[in-house]
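From the pipeline queue, job 12 of 40. The input is one protein chain; the requested action is below.

Action: predict structure.
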Amino acid sequence: MIDAAWVPHHRRIEQVLRERITTMRPGDRLPSDAELVAEFGVSRMTARNAMQRLAEEGLVDRHPGRGSFVAAPLAHRRTDRLMTFSSEMARRGHVPSSRLLARAIRPSTRAEAASLELPVGEPIVEVRRVRLADNQPIALESAVLVQACGPSVLAADLEAGSLHAAIHAGGISLRRGTGTVGAASATSEDARLLHIRRGDPLLVERRVIVDDGGRRIEATESRYAADRYALDVSFDVEPAPAGPGPGPTNGETR
């Protein structure tokens, strides 16, 4: 029988290193692959994969022949990476916290069931929080989770701790997600909870996160005060389509 709380070794190493990084400074040395092997009792490949995942997320700088080091924090979060709010704020030198507004198991609405690919009315876990940095409200976060998250999420300290850490503690490994980012005007509730004015601009992020098996686990809407948060974007430029007509003349460029 498989232990429901079992977490893959590389994910366990990632989780431990993420927590350590929040207490370290950019440039601090991280354990080598050999040191991770000795500490966690895993293969060198497993240790290397865990560290490489953190490097791909921008948390770690790896230098062949020198080692792995804590990366300098970006000014903002990149759109191709989801870091927990707590880790993100800690890396920027802020003290993260949350104010819990709601936490309960209840039947899913039609929209919530669709976002998690569940039958309408299937029980889900609702978590609503105001996310703060240095006691300043940054975002209003509304998350719905599959019922399997209930025991660990209902028992966790979600004002000082991380929702994703609670989900991992329950034996569920979050793997990847998709999302959209848009704009909205602050409602009366947004204004009251974020200490802004009604109608002020918001950055609204909606995302769905799946586990290692592709099962939808979390659907979240985060409503950020636009003057307190931003996302960095990286992209490739598509080659210009070939078309008829003369090229630039007289030294002109296009």
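Job complete. The longest helix spans residues 9-21.
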